[in-house]
Write a structure and sequence with these properties.
alpha/beta; five-stranded mixed sheet
C-alpha cells in the first residue's frame, strides 16, 4: 500500500478516535461496546448478557511486555473485588492455547478469550495492546485506557463504577 494511503488511513483513524473521546473510534463513553462471547463458570455467554455488575476487559498479548507487566493488577482486582466485578482478558494475535498456557504457567487465574481472527480487536478498533475497558453495571463504557495502566488507575475506575 502506498505511504500516502497508509498516512490517510492513520489520520482518519486518529480523527475518529478523537471524536469518540475514548481514543478508540468504535468505543464511546456511556454506550455499550461491541459484543462478544466469553466463557464463564456458567458456560459461554455474551458480554452484553453479563450486565448487573461491572466488567473489566483487558486486551493483551503474551509477547507484549507492558501487557504482562499489568496482568497482576487484573488478578489483584479479581481477588480484591471477588464476585462484585468480572474481569475478562482477550488475547491478540496468538495461536489457540498460548495465552491460557501463559496465564496458567504464572499462576494467574483469569478468564481468557482467544481472538484468533482478530474479530474482537477489529470491532473494538484496537491498533495496539494493552488496552482496557471498564463497563458499568448497565454494560456501558465508563473508563478506557489505551496503553499500559497502573494499579491505581484501574482500581479508581472500578471503585467509581461500584459507587454508582
Amino acid at each position: 500500500m502506498p505511504a500516502e494511503k497508509v498516512g490517510v488511513k492513520l489520520l482518519a483513524a486518529l480523527v475518529l478516535a478523537a471524536a469518540s473521546g475514548t481514543g478508540l473510534p468504535a468505543i464511546h463513553y456511556g454506550a455499550p461496546p461491541p459484543d462478544f462471547v466469553v466463557r464463564t463458570a456458567q458456560g459461554s455467554e455474551r458480554i452484553s448478557a453479563l450486565r448487573g455488575k461491572p466488567i473489566v476487559i483487558n486486551f493483551w498479548a503474551s509477547w507484549c511486555p507492558p501487557c504482562t507487566d499489568e496482568l497482576p493488577y487484573f488478578e489483584r482486582l479479581a481477588q480484591t473485588y471477588g464476585q462484585k466485578v468480572l474481569v475478562v482478558t482477550v488475547d491478540w494475535n496468538e495461536q489457540p492455547g498460548v495465552a491460557a498456557d501463559y496465564l496458567r504457567s504464572r499462576g494467574i487465574a483469569l478468564p481468557v478469550v482467544t481472538d484468533e481472527e482478530s474479530d474482537i480487536y477489529k470491532a473494538y478498533s484496537l491498533f495496539e495492546v494493552p488496552d482496557t475497558l471498564v463497563l458499568d453495571a448497565q454494560g456501558n463504557v465508563s473508563y478506557v485506557s489505551v496503553g499500559e495502566l497502573s494499579w491505581h488507575e484501574l482500581d479508581d475506575a472500578v471503585q467509581r463504577v461500584l459507587s454508582e
